[in-house]
Amino acid sequence: MPILELENLSKTYGGTTALKGLTLQVEPGSVYGLLGPNGSGKTTTLGIALGVLRASSGTVRWFGQEPTAANRRRIGALLETPNFFPYLSARQNLLLAADVKQADTRSVDQALDAVGLGTRQHDAFRGFSLGMKQRLALASTLLGSPEVLVLDEPTNGLDPQGIAEVRSLVQRLAAEGKTIILASHLLDEIEKVCTHVAVLQRGELRAAGPVSNILATADRVLLRPAPD
Ligand code: ATP
């Protein structure tokens, strides 16, 4: 059974059409990339899938069911950078996030270890590198041990070292069995970390399938911004 099924999703914001009839399926164990230039509809797709945006039409199914509070708890999401407190430690920040999510302390310890911050957990957030800050953000998505992670442009704004850290963390989490859905406008990122990809252009699906098939054959012009 697919982890996520989007069927015929459309979305308009006022006069702007952001998505046009998007259908895709994410299978368990995949690292599924949504690839497209800025404005192609990636964030809109993830927002609708997570229930933070309402589709104009179409359906979303998680784990073969209509979205419910119970299956929402099986999904960890990073759509925007969380507001961590600069003078609190990594651990204190995660304990606060865990409180909001009703996750337990054990889950905090597991998340810190999973992102490689166990030994830095008592250090103040403000002293962290960009990559460490983003790894802490990823740790917050792991609270409650979700089966699926949904990440919107997780390496945006990072320096090269941070990008490398976050990409290898995504690969490690996938190897540990998480299904990961990740939006990116970077072809090399998708090639490096994803098993499957959907290529979006102006809110339309242009191609979808295993990365090796799609990126080998896709016209790379697709990945440029569409002409007006
Ligand atoms: P980015 O990487 O820049 O976030 P994206 O691929 O995630 O791009 P979306 O953010 O989903 O794309 O935007 C798709 C289209 O919808 C764009 O034309 C965008 O301008 C428009 N859009 C997104 N959010 C809104 C909004 N709240 N109101 C009006 N238009 C919006």
Summarize the structure.
With 228 residues, this protein is an alpha/beta fold. The chain has eight helices and nine strands.
Order of helices and strands: EEEHEHEHHHEHEHEEH
Strand content: 25-35%
The percentage helix is 25-40%
Number of helical elements: 8
Bound molecules: adenosine-5'-triphosphate
Protein name: ABC transporter ATP-binding protein
Family: Belongs to the ABC transporter superfamily.
Organism: Hymenobacter duratus
Domain ABC transporter: 4-227
Task: Characterize the structure shown.
With 228 residues, this protein is an alpha/beta fold. It contains 8 helices and 9 strands. A 6-stranded mixed sheet has the order 5-6-7-3-8-9, with helices on both faces. A 3-stranded antiparallel sheet has the order 2-1-4, covered by helices on one side. Strand 1 and strand 2 form a beta hairpin. The longest helix has 16 residues, at 160-175. The chain is globular. It starts with a strand and ends in an 11-residue tail after the last helix. The model has no long low-confidence stretch (mean pLDDT 92). The structure holds adenosine-5'-triphosphate. Residues 13-14, 16, 18, 36, 38-44, 185 line the site of adenosine-5'-triphosphate (ATP).
